[in-house]
Structure formats: C-alpha cells, structure tokens
Specification:
Length: 270
C-alpha cells in the first residue's frame, strides 16, 4: 500500500498537490476518469478555470479567488503530470523555464540594466526580448506565436498590434470608422444576396475592424464586451423584477411591454 502520510498532511504544500495528482493518474490505483484524460480533454477546463479567476477578481470576491486560484494551479499540475508521463517535461522543468524567462525578461531588475525607464521604453524592451525568443524558436514571421486558442477578440487585438509594429496600421480612427461603415454595408449586402457562409465571413470582418477601433481608442474589446454583458444582465433582471411586481413573467409579456420597461430601467441609470 502506498504511504498516504503526505497526501493527508495539510502542511504538505506543493509536494502534496503533486503527489495527489500522481496518485490520481496512477494506471493501477488512480481515478478512472483522471486516468482517461489527455491534454486535449483537459484544455477546456484550464480555460474555464482562468475565466473563473477573472470573474472572482471582477466581483472583488477574494475568498472565492483563493479557491479559483487553487483550481487554476491544479490545471498546471494536471498538464505537467501528463507531460511527465509522456516524457515531454516535468513540473520542475516548467518552473525552471518560467523562472529563467522572467529573469531574462527583466534585466533592469535582475541584471545590470537601469530601472530608470519609462513604461513605454520598458514595453519596447520587453517586445524586443520576446521577438528574440520567437526567433530562437524559428518563429520569424510577424504574426508567429500569437496563440490560436485565445478568445477571438483578444487574438484579433494581438494580431493587429503585431502588424502595427511593422507599420501595417491606420494612422488614426477616421480610417477605422470608415472601414466599419464599409464592412457593415458589405454585411447587409451579404445578408440579402449571399450564402450563410459568406454572411459569416462578412460578420467576422466587421468584428475584426471593431476590435481594431477599440485598439485605436485604447479600449480592451473583451473588457468592454464583458461590461456590456453585465449591463444587459443587470437591466434585463430589472425588467423581470418589474414584471414580477405586476404578477407576470417575460413569457407572459410581449416585446412592446418589455421594451417600455427597458426604457424605464435605462432612464433610471440602472
């Protein structure tokens, strides 16, 4: 029988968590579900846990954040355990890699470079270091290394920022706004005359330019859309509350009534 002393030691720290995951993945005595998982099946959980961390931060729920950070840490442990089993990497090698990277990317803290730099200069230096890292990985094209798995709006901004660094960018928002008008007209035309696939393409083009406008206005499109989602949720909940006050539900109402209530909620700055 394996020694469970570390498993049940509340002061076991990181070694305890690593041993828990090793045991869960043990092909003979582990959890059948955990044993069946692979990188592809766990990746969606990793993304979900990262969003739950962001959600707890947005709500200033620090007790919840503690738990969510643990869930996110478990995802790293899960992937490193699978990597170790396959001979790709280990938890220690992952820790060493990120530690080396942080030291290399901060010569003004851990090296002999001056800390007396503007935020803009530090950002420029950071990008030079990352460019050198990409070159070392044979990622020589401008857009290489922008992760495909990022949320689409976030990836759009990162792609546009990369292109802008080599001069492929509109000089101001006027051209971006003109492009939005153009793309909106093309979407209307596609809706009326083209296939659904072509409508999807035109809609994607419009979203891409909207992300570019956000970038030019120093707006994070993901953050702006999250705020809009929260506002919609808040206002629609207020509409439901108003309907409940008169003994109705949204299913028992109609668009005209709910729209009028929406205007009231909006006027109240809800």
């Amino acid at each position: 029988m394996p020694d469970d002393k570390l498993i049940h030691d509340p002061k076991g720290g990181m070694p305890r968590l690593l041993e828990i995951m090793r045991r869960l993945r043990d092909p003979d005595t582990g959890c059948p579900w955990d044993i069946e998982q692979d990188f592809d099946s766990i990746a969606p959980y990793t993304i979900e846990e990262a969003y739950e961390v962001a959600d707890a931060i947005a709500r200033n729920d620090w007790a919840e954040l503690e738990g969510e950070l643990g869930d996110l840490l478990l995802q790293t442990v899960y992937h490193t355990q699978m990597g170790s089993e396959a001979g790709y990497f280990t938890f220690d090698s992952v820790v060493r890699n990120i530690s080396d990277k942080m030291v290399a990317r901060h010569p003004h803290v851990f090296g002999d470079e001056s800390r007396d730099k503007s935020a803009e200069q530090q950002t420029a230096d950071w990008e030079k270091i990352k460019a050198a890292e990409r070159a070392g990985k044979k990622q020589t094209r401008t857009l290489d290394g922008v992760a495909i798995g990022l949320p689409a709006l976030m990836r759009a901004v990162k792609l546009q920022n990369r292109a802008a660094r080599v001069g492929f960018d509109w000089p101001d928002t006027t051209q971006v706004l003109n492009k939005i008008v153009e793309e909106a007209a093309e979407l209307v035309e596609a809706r009326d005359t083209l296939t659904q696939t072509e409508v999807n393409e035109e809609f994607g083009d419009l979203l891409f330019v909207m992300a570019n406008l956000g970038r030019h206005l120093n707006i994070d499109p993901e953050e702006a859309l999250r705020a809009a989602n929260a506002k919609f949720t808040r206002r629609f909940s207020a509409v439901e509350d108003a309907l409940q006050d008169i003994g109705k539900s949204p299913a028992q109402s109609d668009l005209a009534e709910m729209d009028a209530l929406w205007d009231q909620v909006k006027a109240a700055k809800n």
